[in-house]
Records
---
Amino acid sequence: MQWLFSRPAVLIWLLLVLTAAHQIYDKADRFWACSGRVLAPGNWLWLLLCWLVLKLVHELAHAVVCKKYGGSIREAGILFVLLTPIAYVDVTSAWRFRSKWQRIFTATAGMYVELGLAAAAALAWSRTDAGRSITCAST
């Protein structure tokens, strides 16, 4: 999975994010009309499932980048804070990287992957009926 964090992949990611931002900007009225349905009670199970997958991918990204730069992963797991499961990966070995950019990229890898997934989802939405018509406002 280290290829996801190569320079060509970062350039493709940037193009993806900019294209998605443009699509959302062009269809802002439709986007906001549809966004009200996300928290509907019928979607809560899907939201939970998506949240769990996103957190897993987020933490996996930290681990992959840390390993890419020669760091070690001592442990990974799930903590329960106020009865809420929180995934974690111990990438403290990243503090020994000589390059501050490697430390920064290790720290931001989770956000990088989440933003890429959000951009892909936004592009997929913009190509669906919901992204083409204003019918989301009803319900």
---
Amino acid sequence: MAKPDQQPASSVDHVDRVIEQWGIERPDLDLRPTAIVARLGRAVSFTDQRLESFFAQHGLTRGLWDVLASLRRTGAPFRLSPTELANELMRTTGTMTSRLAQLQDEGLIRRVPDPADGRGMLVELTAKGRRLVDRLAAEHLANERQILAGISASDQKALAALLADLLKHLELPSS
């Protein structure tokens, strides 16, 4: 049986062990942020592994999916500028150039002239790209549901709200 101030062994995770080690070595440190930030990082790593595995089964990466999904959810005519895509996906233009080239080679997107800017180009989802996104969207969401299956629906809702609050803070322009 666990002592009142300890968690049962079954509920101890890697981060708990890290915090315990730091607590022994440096009891003067406030480790409360580590309980969250380290868990976020580990959760992202495990989630990314599962998402990448899912998309690899379909000849994609998560990064390529993100481009296709961004274009699909904009609605007809399923177009964005490369800069809009880079900003939305928080990627550099260099990263976007590589992804767009891959997707264009696969016939999933095409570049079309920007009617509002004679010198600019837009990225447009092709019919083949739209069919792929529409086919994979439900499977992708089922995969995400499976990733979150370890926590209840009410805890998922609470976690979503807490993460939204955190992101609102993090997304503020720094002064």
---
Amino acid sequence: MRRRRPPGCVSAPLWQLQNGLAAGIQTAANGPYLVTNARLRDHLGQDIALPPQIALCRCGGSRTKPLCDGSHTSNGFSDAIDPKRVPDRLDSYPGVTLTVLDNRGTCQHSGLCSDRLPDVFRARREPFVAPSGARMDDIVSTVRNCPSGALGFAVDARPARGQTDWGGTREPAIEVSLDGPYRVTGGIAFTDADGIDVVRNRGASREHYAICRCGHSQNKPFCSGMHWYVDFKDPVAEPDREPTLFEWAGGRPALTRMTRLFFGKYVPGDLVLAPVFAAMPADLPDSMAAWLTEVFGGPAAPSGEPSSYPSLIAQIVPKGLNDEQRGRWATLLGAAAREAGLPADPAFQAAFAAYAEWEARVSPLPPVPVPRWDWGPAGPPSTQVAKPAAADAGQAPVTLPEAGQPVSFAAHIRPLFRQQDRRAMSFVFDLWLYDDVKAHAADILKHLRDGSMPCDGAWPPAWVETFARWTTTQMAP
């Protein structure tokens, strides 16, 4: 356990006494999460300095997020599990090299798996998982990075939970994701108000899991993706301040994903760069992420020492890269950035490409001073583009058919589904596409009738009857 120094509000003896306790999270009945000695980070990967024992909001109403301010006592928060939640069912998808395991009842619908490997985790298609759609190492990496712990894999019919759970090497930590759940890693013990281990769904990871902080999950205390429905938002600090490249990229977690892909996949698979970096040290990806954090406007290393990245690169390529190697470096770094999910807007892409080209040409890098990269003369995207459209933009008003009037998908069925309904079901199918709804009409009707869809409240009977009429007629477009 990493030892932390106490803030001024905590006495040193009390801090030392608490700092030796095992990391843990306990739910208070209809109240907050009581957290002991776990590292807390914001969505950019930066530490939040707090005492060893804190109370984190899970009702969604605190004005001091992520800390609890007692709002749960007045806003009617209940920690009851919704009986209409997605069922606890572990699905198995055998492939050529491994079997992918998935429990939709555990998933928080972050989209990280379908964004990275869309040919394996196929949004709006059945079956959801095609386990032979990518290389084994890419599937394993994606499964390991599933924030909810819904995904797993088996080799030779044996669940490989130890590999899925990072071999128990990660430090206990809690990430306060932006406008979303708490993402827990490092195997932090999770108990209820009576100190009893919280019951998990089948196949769920105990090393990493996502717990609700919007107050509306159907699968409390775990996240079920309801923060999308209720439009849960974190308070915006300094809304008029120009974001740094570090913040726009997604912080240290995003940069680390990229550098690990770059040195773990793209460089070893390239005929030009693989021989040069065949003996690279294991900490090179994380060293590069720390370097880029500071270069792109993020915080320097806590120790104040210069990054080890320039010296590591100097050991590998003391005379720098040649012209061919420089070209491959910049190209592959851009590919790793795209796969890692870094922003695709032109302003960020231009600034990032300029840095990649600069680094390839000046390598080996001078250790000090650390260069500071900014947006350049064009400025950040927020000064160039309009704000996103409203959540339900493009949705037609609901108009029910008259008695005896044919029911049409475009005129009567599609408008019944809101943008948030569409988004919540996007991992299976698109509720605004005629072919998708027609193919799944029977299953959709079943859930509409039992009130489990949409998950924030049942439809009026007249709407359900309209959908039923459409399914029993010719299902007109």
